[in-house]
């Protein structure tokens, strides 16, 4: 039975899971869930994820939510894969950057993304835009410095942390505002486009 991945392509967290599955050559079926395509707040979906959020992975009778947990599961259940290093220190660095993207970076970009990338009506408070963009820029400086030391966030080889971080970098360069140059991050984005199967996820689709 094929894996089922529930979520819309325009969700950055859904694209994390899909990209990893593609890199690993896994067979899966994707179902559109998430507004405006299909409301995840209905009982059918809430039975799978009481938070009403995408993505959700269904593997037979096993259900899992939270994108980073799904990525870790895929790597363990269908690996081994070099994207999830087995050596403790290498895996620690991979997990560090994967968690950092989902906590430190994702926690600061919300208002700026809604205003400057997605152009959502009502997100027009310039003070809030500026504050969000300032905090986001600080995180991008940390990332750009790291990418000046190593070609990928956790070292010399691509890991699944680069999937999450790469999508975040794509989101940064999708902002409709003059932003601070991040040359190492820009080169990294092009490297991921050319050296992985993630090119289709690093396009102009909704960031």
UniProtKB/TrEMBL annotation:
Pfam families cross-referenced by the UniProt entry: GST_C_2, GST_N_2
Domain GST C-terminal: 87-207
GST N-terminal domain mapped to chain residues: 1-82
Listed GO MF terms: transferase activity
PROSITE patterns the UniProt entry points to: GST_CTER (PS50405), GST_NTER (PS50404)
Protein biosynthesis as UniProt keyword: no
Protein origin, superkingdom: Bacteria
Keywords: Transferase
Family indicated by similarity: Belongs to the GST superfamily.
Protein name per the record: Glutathione S-transferase
